[in-house]
Fold Transcobalamin-like C-terminal domain-containing protein.
Amino acid sequence: MVRRVCQIALLIALALVSVVGCSNNEVAQNTLAEEKVENKIVVEVSSDQGKTKIAEKTIQFKGDQTLYELMKTNFKVEDDNGFITSIEDVKQNPAEKKYWLYEVNGAPAVTGAKDLKVKDGDVIKWDLHAS
């Protein structure tokens, strides 16, 4: 009787170890797969309503990134308290009321670059023009 109880307890313990081992491995594999996924966006930089092309890059990134972070790491950018004031040495000119403005997938931006979480496939167009 005692031997039978020990055998059952051993089988239950082995089953629990198997379940825990498999679930941790699955979580680790899912996390690793998510880290390997690379997203892409296209960033176009121009002035005067697109008349003068300044730069264009396809940027690959992983995880959650803001437009501001990607601009800082992929372009020569200057900012003033988080507002982009210069891209690739082309500065905005408040005296002429020319500022850097951007659109996402053809729609004017409704948030600052620091707050915009980019998504795979986004097309960002920056343009320096009078507002």
Notes: The longest helix spans residues 2-36. The beta strands are 39-47, 52-61, 77-80, 83-87, 90-91, 98-104, 107-108, 123-130. Residues 40-130 form a domain with the Ferric Hydroxamate Uptake Protein; Chain A, domain 1 fold (CATH 2.170.130.30). The two ends are 88 Å apart (CA to CA).
